[in-house]
Fold:
Amino acid sequence: MDRARRRGAALLFAVAAAAYVGDRLTKVWAESRLAEAPIELIDGVLTLRFTTNSGGAFSIGGSTPWIFVTASVVVIGIIVVTSFRHTSLWSAAAVGLILGGALGNLTDRAIRGEAFRGRVVDFIDVHVWPIFNLADTAIVIGAAVLAFGSFLDGRDAHAQADADRDAEADAEAPDAR
Structure:
């Protein structure tokens, strides 16, 4: 295995660990500190407020948590199995954020109820969006970075293909002297 793949996997797992630990610590803090009263950071804009959610994004699917558990396990498995394929550091970091976030929310489901039916702790309230947590943030940022990076890679690939085509044309053109 080459060095770039080892470096990519190391970064992926380091970012995943940081996202996971950050998520767990903030959820423990939120449950202990925010259960009695929320903290208004920016009046009407940003409040730290403890709540739990049995569903997924926007509280959808609250009666079917197994869907989210299954999706999380599949995503985690795919990421772990393919972890040594990342040679791009940005993609390794992005996938690490997704892995850390998925593990964070899966941990909530595992420890906060029987048979992975636990509720996920949410506490970041921006008043115009459903309340969310650090794991959700890591997943969304990771997906956005992955999408943006893929777009840039596509542009780079097109530019390289154009340069290769121009070089071929120059090599095949008769010498005009």
Q: What stands out?
A: The two ends are 49 Å apart (CA to CA).
